[in-house]
Amino acid sequence: MTRKKKKKSHKIPNLTDAILQIFKKSSNKVYNYKQIAAILNITDTSGRNQIIKTLKKLQAKQKIEEVERGKYRVIGNTEYYKGVIDMTTRGQGYVICDDFEEDIFVPSHKLNHALDGDEVEVYVYKRRRNNRPEGEITEVIKRAKTEFVGVLQMQKNFAFVVVSNQKMYTDIFVPKSKINNAKDGEKVVVEIEDWPARADSPFGVVKQVLGKPGEHDTEIHSILAEYGLPYEFPETVERFANKLDTTIQEEEIKKRRDMRDVLTFTIDPKNAKDFDDALSFQVLENGNYEIGIHIADVSHYVQPGTILDDEAYERATSVYLVDRVVPMLPEILSNGACSLRPNEEKYTFSAVFEINNKAEVLKQWFGRTVTYSDKRFAYEEAQVIIETKGNEIPADVSLTGEAYTVSDDIVQATLKLDELAKIMRAKRMQQGAISFDKVEVRFHLDENNNPEGVYFKTQKDANKLIEEFMLLANKRVAAFVGKQEPEKTFVYRIHDEPDVEKLANLQTIISRFGYSLNLKTRKSTTSSLNKLLEDVQGKGEQNMVDTLAIRSMSKAKYTTKNIGHYGLAFDYYSHFTSPIRRYPDVMVHRLLQHYLDGGKSADAEVYEEKCEHSSKMEALAASAERDSIKYMQIKFMQDHKDEEFVGVISGVTEWGIYVEIIANKCEGMVRIREIKDDYYTFDEKQYALVGEVTKNMYQLGDEVVVKVKNTDLIKRHLDFDLIGKRVEVEA
């Protein structure tokens, strides 16, 4: 298979590297300091002076030469490059490097102790067939991680830890003195301490015993440990949080806009414990509406420079696993002082808008408030009000399990908010927003966290109502700061345009199902993408097409450099509405208040580093969440080994096909060697396995019947036996 160029995720660490990269990319070109400043977009005098100093240093180190006064060129065409190594499950690597269009292949015997994700120096020694670069790792500059999760295997005087991660090609040697009471066969966290030059395996120490493989808590804690995510707060942080004064003080109220008398309520999932946001609603004398989006004022309690702030920053996000939430903040804040619970006064940070019947914002106000939530709704309860336009909440959707009546005021507010949200959503779609209503898998768990059933979480009007007003607040806050002159440092949530190659790839796949995309312009791309996502709803191939469409998109991230948000079709966008569970929102609150108080622009470099950390932690949390769902799906399938399931072929590779069961979205693999009715080969162009004799074809998107062959909770792997293609039975 052709190896596509991967985008490098690590940043250019300093000016020296940035300048050197400019020279390396055009080895015959001559540059002066002004040209380099223009390329790097450096316009200030001190920045230009830094460039001049750096050029002199590079000349002294004989990296560049001065060909005439003030003009420089790179010396020679060095074969040594820096990059990040991406390991395959077969023990080979590819170095992702800015200097090469394609990733540099590194065979297993040339890895020289580099592990997946490490920053490395690579010597590119030859071109492979098809002119592709090949190299050898000459130095590990920086380890991506030193802690790994695996199973301890005891020998007489030492042990080995067999690491769970399939990209880890070696086990870790642990001397008997460093096993820390771990027993043979237990799952542990091991830290690499040393890797002697001649040793086959790195030397490590057991840091933590997780428990017996296969046990629920062991596996969930393993998932967190694999991504370096904590599952407990340090005692010092808990103590600090518990000592905070969380009472509502008259002195503090005087500094805020008092909105306790305005009708305010929350709409959240049934099982939510932390209520980040509330909506307030009142009809103004001129017939317009004042709508407040009230967000927990986390930054009032979480002050910079405290151990509480340090811990929140390190975590950067709450982690939502199948059976638990690992919160960013201790419980006294996340479920207590900062949670906008009903019938309690709370400190909030608010975006208050005057809006007319066309959902146009006529006035806006941002600032600290004190609010009182009159009512808490589950999405299902709010949905009943929207659908029936009445006051009665039936027992089967009620949070208390008993039927009750809602006040006329709340019904009127909910219906008007729903009406305005629908207008706002329609406008967004018209402006080119993309509607990803991806189905989310959820589980009914018994008291021992065993999955009794699978259900799918879908977005209804009540969810979309909340979403639109959160988007409004996020967009307006970002624009308020982003449009200020002179420009102010801020934390944006950006989303770049999709990868053209990936869209073309998506086009090829969906054409098999009779769908198409129009990729001529940005507008035609987004409208045809929306039509595709609408057309596949409820079809067998929906989840596969949704997943492929999402993969064709760029990843959203946090940064101080605003380029807008492609998926939402917003020029300015930020995250303001969830500071209980996202650290960037805490930063946004602090910066917004600082600028409301007339403060000068904050240090962009400091905030850019914090943005990068937040984006990285968000990605780790998402991976842990995916792994926990996969684990629970496999656990669910263990009890269904004798059943046949209809599934869709969701992936095709040279080693087999991936099949996703339609009824529960569990994905497993059918290995090519297990398909016995013919000898099958992989046809990359057709995304298919083709039988040599029968010419029988198993192609991406085909519906097939499978049976569970093997479930491995520890490796989180599911194997299917292929029964055959699904045959439509005529009525």
TrEMBL record:
SMART domains: CSP, RNB, S1
Locations listed in the record: Cytoplasm
Coiled-coil region list: none
Top-rank EC class of the record's enzyme: hydrolase
InterPro entries per UniProt: CSD, CSD2, NA-bd_OB-fold, RNase_B_OB_dom, RNase_II/R, RNase_II/R_CS, RNase_II/RNase_R, RNase_R
Annotated keywords: Cytoplasm, Exonuclease, Hydrolase, Nuclease, RNA-binding
SUPFAM superfamilies, per database record: Nucleic acid-binding proteins
Source organism, top-level taxon: Bacteria
GO biological process, one term: mRNA catabolic process
Keyword Cytoplasm on entry: yes
UniProt GO cellular component terms: cytosol
EC number: 3.1.13.1
One GO molecular-function entry: RNA binding
Pfam families according to UniProt: CSD2, OB_RNB, RNB, S1
Listed PROSITE patterns: RIBONUCLEASE_II, S1
Catalysed reactions listed for this entry: Exonucleolytic cleavage in the 3'- to 5'-direction to yield nucleoside 5'-phosphates
Domain S1 motif: 642-723
Protein family (similarity comment): Belongs to the RNR ribonuclease family. RNase R subfamily.
Function: 3'-5' exoribonuclease that releases 5'-nucleoside monophosphates and is involved in maturation of structured RNAs.
Protein name in UniProt: Ribonuclease R
